[in-house]
Specification:
This protein is an alpha/beta fold. It contains 15 helices and 18 strands. Bound molecules: 1-deoxynojirimycin (NOJ).
Length: 544
C-alpha cells in the first residue's frame, strides 16, 4: 500500500479528488446525518475506488443555516459530525491509505453565531467589534445599497438598534470585512491550525468574493444581472483585484510547510483569463473549472472549453481541472439526460418531462471517460460513481436549502443533489445509517435507489461503479494519463478524438450515428463495441 509520504510533492497536479458532502455520505451513529465515523468506515471503499484525495465539505460547528457554510468556530468540529480526535484519526487513517485530505474554508462570511458576530451585535453601532463585518446605517428605512443576496432578497438585514449588516448569502452568514488586518491574520492562523494537524489543503469557498468596495456603491441593474455578472470590471464585490493580495499571504503560509499544502479556488468568474489570475505562481494552486461543468453535451462546445482551459492554464503553469457535478448543481446524469442543457439549477433547465434518465446515464459514462482522460486533475462528487441522478420530487416540507426558503420557493434549490447515498439493501436508508438507526436520513431517499446501491453495483461489469473503478485504475497504470500533453486527432464531425502522449487515444462519439473504430487495443469502453463506437459512447484505446 502506498502512503502519502511515498507519493510525490506534485500529486495535486493530476489528483482525482473525491468530494465528501459529509452530511450525506455515511452515517456512523444512526442519527440520520452523515458524520466522520461514517467516512472512516468507508475509507477502504474510497481507496478501492482509486481516488487520490478527499475534499470534505465544512465540518465545523454550525447552526446549519446553509448546511455548514455558516461556520461558528473554524478550529473545531461540529459535534453532530464527531470530535477533534475523530478528525485527527480520519486524517491519519486516510494518509495511511494514500489519500490526501482537503478541507473547506469559508472566509467570505461567518455564522451569525460566531463569537465575533455575537460580540458585534452586543457592542453596538460604531464599535470596533462591528468593524470586522460590514455594518452601515440605512437610507431612511431602506438598506444601505441595492445589493441582493445570492439566495434571494436583499443582501442586508437590520438589527433592532437600526444598523444593517451585509450578507451576500443567507442572513445567518454575515460578510467579513477583509480590509481589516485582524481578519486577515485570523484566517492565516486558521490555515495553520489545520495544516499543523496534517490537513493537505483547502477548498476556498466563494474565493472571488472576499474583497468588497469599501464605499459599498449601488450595483444597479436587474437582480439577475447583478449576481450573474461575475465581476472583474469594477464590480463592487465579485472578483475584485484586491482579493489577490489575500491569496499571496495564504500561499506564503502554505509554502512555509515542508509537506506540500494546496489550495483550490471556488471562483465563479467571467472568463478563463480572469480565473488564471488566481493561479499565478505565488497564489493558489488550482481552481474548479465551472466552464467545463456548465458546457452542454455538444462536441464544439466541449472542444472550445477544453482548448480555452488548457491554453489559459498553460500561461501560468497551473494544471487544468475537470468537474461534472458538486453539491450546488443538478447532478449531471439529470443534466445530460435533458435536451442540450447547459444550466446548473433546476430553474434554468428544460422541465422534468424532457428528462431521459437512461440517456443521461449513458452520456455520464462517456463523460467520465472524457473527464479522466483529459490532462490535469479531476473531481468526483460523491455518488457520481454510482450514477446518481437529481432527486427532483422531494416534498416541499423536507427541503432545507436556504435558497428555497429565501426565494419563497421560486428557486427549487440544491437539496436534490444532496440526498444521502445508497450503500446497500433494498429499502431506505439503504445502508446509509446502521441497522436499527433511530433517525431517518436527513433527506428522504427515493425507492429506486435500490437498483444503484454500491452493493448492487459491486462486481457488475455493466455498472457505473465498475466503470469508475476500472477507469481510475487505468489512469494510475497508464503513464500518459494525468498531467501532460494532449493532441486533437482528425475525426468525423461530432466526434472528440485526442491522444495523450504516445499510444493512448480517447474517442467520444457525440454525433448521431455509430462511427468506425480505428485500430488499437480497447482498454475500456462505456458500451459494448462491435467494430464501431455507438452514439454517446466513449472508448480508450492503446497501440501497445
Ligand atoms: C458555495 C458553496 O459551495 C455553497 O454550498 C454555499 O451555499 C455558498 N458558497 C455560500 O457559502
Amino acid at each position: 500500500m502506498t502512503t502519502v509520504e511515498e507519493t510525490g510533492g506534485s500529486w495535486w497536479r493530476d489528483a482525482v479528488v473525491y468530494q465528501l458532502y459529509i452530511r450525506s455520505f455515511a452515517d456512523g451513529d444512526g442519527d440520520g446525518l452523515g458524520d466522520i465515523a461514517g467516512i472512516r468506515a468507508r475509507l477502504g471503499y474510497l481507496r478501492d475506488l482509486g481516488v487520490d484525495a478527499l475534499w470534505i465539505n465544512p465540518w465545523y460547528p454550525s447552526p446549519m443555516a446553509d448546511a455548514g457554510y455558516d461556520v461558528a468556530d473554524y478550529r473545531a468540529v461540529e459535534p453532530a459530525f464527531g470530535t477533534g480526535e475523530d478528525a485527527a484519526a480520519l486524517v491519519r487513517e486516510a494518509h495511511g491509505l494514500g489519500l490526501r485530505v482537503i478541507l473547506d474554508i469559508v472566509p467570505n462570511h461567518t455564522s451569525d453565531q460566531h463569537a465575533w458576530f455575537r460580540a458585534a451585535v452586543a457592542a453596538g453601532p460604531g464599535s470596533p467589534e462591528r468593524a470586522r463585518y460590514h455594518f452601515r446605517p440605512g437610507v431612511g428605512d431602506a438598506p444601505p445599497n441595492d445589493w441582493r443576496s445570492v439566495f434571494g432578497g436583499p443582501a442586508w438585514t437590520r438589527l433592532p438598534d437600526g444598523d444593517w449588516y451585509l450578507h451576500l448569502f443567507d442572513s445567518a452568514q454575515p460578510a467579513l470585512n477583509w480590509n481589516l488586518p485582524e481578519v486577515r491574520a485570523e484566517f492565516e492562523s486558521i490555515l495553520r491550525f489545520w495544516f499543523d494537524r496534517g490537513v493537505d489543503g483547502f477548498r476556498i469557498d466563494v474565493a472571488h468574493a472576499l474583497d468588497k468596495d469599501a464605499d459599498l456603491p449601488d450595483v444597479g441593474g436587474e437582480e439577475e444581472a447583478m449576481l450573474a455578472a461575475a465581476g472583474g470590471d469594477g464590480h463592487p464585490f465579485w472578483d475584485r483585484d484586491g482579493v489577490h493580495e489575500i491569496y499571496r499571504g495564504w500561499r506564503r503560509v502554505a509554502d512555509s510547510y515542508a509537506e506540500q499544502k494546496v489550495f483550490v479556488a471556488e471562483a465563479w468568474v467571467s472568463s478563463p483569463e480572469r480565473l488564471i489570475r488566481y493561479l499565478r505562481p505565488d497564489e493558489l494552486h488550482t481552481a474548479f473549472n465551472f466552464d467545463y461543468l456548465g458546457a452542454p453535451w455538444d462536441p464544439a462546445a466541449l472542444r472550445t472549453v477544453i482548448d480555452a482551459s488548457l491554453s489559459t492554464m498553460h500561461a501560468v503553469d497551473a494544471p487544468a481541472t475537470w468537474v461534472l457535478s458538486n453539491h450546488d448543481v443538478v447532478r449531471h446524469v439529470s443534466r445530460l439526460g435533458r435536451p442540450l442543457a447547459s444550466g446548473h439549477s433546476l430553474n434554468d433547465l428544460p422541465p422534468h418531462e424532457t428528462l431521459d434518465r437512461a440517456l443521461g446515464r449513458r452520456r455520464a459514462r462517456a463523460a467520465a471517460l472524457l473527464l479522466f482522460a483529459l490532462p490535469g486533475g479531476a473531481y468526483v462528487y460523491q455518488g457520481d460513481e454510482l450514477g446518481l441522478w437529481e432527486v427532483e420530487d422531494l416534498p416541499d416540507d423536507v427541503r432545507q436549502d436556504p435558497a428555497w426558503r429565501r426565494s419563497g420557493g421560486a428557486e427549487i434549490g440544491r437539496d436534490g443533489c444532496r440526498v444521502p447515498l445508497p450503500w446497500s439493501g433494498t429499502e431506505a436508508p439503504f445502508g446509509f445509517s446502521p441497522d436499527g438507526a433511530a433517525g431517518a436520513p436527513w433527506l428522504p431517499q427515493p425507492a429506486d435507489f435500490a437498483g444503484v446501491t454500491a452493493q448492487a453495483q459491486d462486481g457488475d461489469p455493466a455498472s457505473m461503479l465498475t466503470l469508475y473503478r476500472t477507469a481510475l485504475a487505468l489512469r494510475r497504470a497508464v503513464p500518459q494519463l494525468g498531467d501532460g500533453p494532449m493532441e486533437w486527432l482528425p475525426a468525423e464531425p461530432g466526434v472528440l478524438a485526442f491522444s495523450r502522449g504516445e499510444g493512448f487515444t480517447c474517442l467520444v462519439n457525440l454525433s448521431d450515428a455509430p462511427i468506425a473504430l480505428p485500430g488499437g487495443r480497447v482498454l475500456l469502453a462505456t458500451e459494448a463495441l462491435s467494430g464501431s463506437l455507438p452514439v454517446d459512447a466513449a472508448v480508450w484505446l492503446t497501440d501497445r
